[in-house]
Amino acid sequence: MTGEPAAARWRLAVDAEQCIGSAACAGACARFRMTDDGRAEPVAEVVDAEEAVRDAAECCPVEAITVTDADTGAPVAP
Amino acid sequence: MTTHSRQVRDFPFETPARLSMEPLFATLRRTEPLSRVRLPYGGEAWLVTRYEDIRTVLGDPRFGRAATLHDAAPRIQPDPAGEGVLMSLDPPDHTRLRKTVAGVFTKRRVEELRPATERIAGELLDAMEATGPPADLVTSFALPLSVTVICDLLGVPREDREKLRRWSDALLSTTACTPAEMAASTEALADYFATLARQRRQQPTDDLLGALVARCDSREGQLDEGELVLLTRDLLIAGHETTASQIANCTYLLLQQPHGAVRPDADAGMPMSAVEELLRFIPLGSGSFRARVATEEVELCGRRVRPGETVFAPTVAANWDPEVFHDPGTLDWERSPNPHLAFGHGVHHCLGAQLARMELHVALGALLERLPGLRPAVGEGEIEWKTGMQVRGPRTLPVRW
Ligand code: HEM
Ligand code: HEM
Ligand code: SF4
After folding, report:
1. Quick one: which of B154, B141, B160 has its CA closest to B363?
2. Predicted TM-score of the model (pTM)
3. Is A4 a domain residue?
4. Which domain holds residue A52?
5. How many structural domains is chain B composed of?
């Protein structure tokens, strides 16, 4: 992977309705954590672009994670 | 600590008859939530039996799988590497490989397979009806359904399926086969998938195997040839035995008991909450025996687990923890929430979970709709159960309708 330009910022969201609490994202990427009621949430809403974030979104079994470009709103993953 | 708490027990515990839960899990949960066990290979390890601790071990990145891959690792199987390529990796390697297939197994993609799965189930029931009762639900419905679904997905030709099933059966056994027989089957399956991959290279296909070959050959090289072969082999094995056993187990349980206060009306069909409850209730075994190794010091149950120490975290024990599931030994068709760990937790959360859910839903729904008079064709004592396999289930389930 060539990676994103260093300045890229991504916006993270987890759809709590869809999330089945598998913890696949939180285990793969420190930008996600599990809440007390067993759902995932982003640690911060906007983060520096990082491959692990995209991977976590692509591994979510129910596509509950969306990653968009924080500036342009363009979809990044899944 | 009392001497009682230092007792070392043989693990896995003796499997009780049929689908009964190992009673020791409940005892240990109360008296010794972190206990010592002795494995058939590799010596001693920790065992946790409470839901929260099991979820911690499976979900916390300080526990890994890669470190279980050496000869001295406490384990069930003779071969330390015999538990699948995805199951033997930690992030980030695990993530890289898992993401090559994750997209195929999302809920949305799996829903696209529902109509085909319904058709397969319908054809199997047509054949059963044509022959007439009695029939063995395992060989005439549960197994062919799950084998056909995963083979169609992968792109395995129909005529090869019986042969594949024999090899994969050998791999899943713990005592029913010798280590030599298991090694031969591993080889045979890997060779087989290597051959299929070579064919795809000459003649691209739009099945999963074809897509993986394309990824393997792409400039980004997301997986190598060896991983491709192992991954497809694992999907075949993981994809059919568990699901087939669960279809048979669920049917067995539904036929056993007057089941509950809600009558599923014909239109509503099989409620998904009932499928989830069956998944929680049945101590399938799968997911219970794959240990984790602490990669750094972790506190667990008020004790320190040291780096390099092995912990077993059986999901079946988590699913019967009364702290989380009220009256866990009773099937409650509307249990909600139902945060069971039947598909595991964390990065190794079952890749096929959505597929298995859909298959179970379709299979049980089809039985309910097409054969409402379904009943056992033999007495309880005549149903033969699998032994020496990691996954519990009836070997045969003779039924009438
Ligand atoms: C593969 C799926 C199923 C099969 C093969 C099956 C089979 C049967 C059989 C053989 C009976 C006894 C015959 C009768 O009393 O009419 C029965 C009754 C009943 N079933 Fe099922 N069943 C299935 C799924 C379900 C589900 C998912 C539910 C509930 C959510 C359910 C609820 C009932 C109820 C309420 C009765 C009436 C008997 C009683 O009140 O205990 N069944 N079923
Ligand atoms: C009812 C059926 C099934 C059950 C109960 C089940 C259960 C599980 C459990 C508990 C795990 C996690 C093991 C652990 O963390 O120690 C797992 C992993 C896995 N399952 Fe399933 N499974 C089922 C069906 C399937 C199907 C249909 C497929 C195939 C497509 C599949 C493929 C896998 C794979 C590849 C893994 C390893 C994932 C990884 O390491 O990232 N399973 N399964
Ligand atoms: S991977 Fe998806 S379903 Fe699993 S916890 Fe994260 S957001 Fe929820």
Report:
1. B141
2. 0.90
3. no
4. 9-77
5. 1
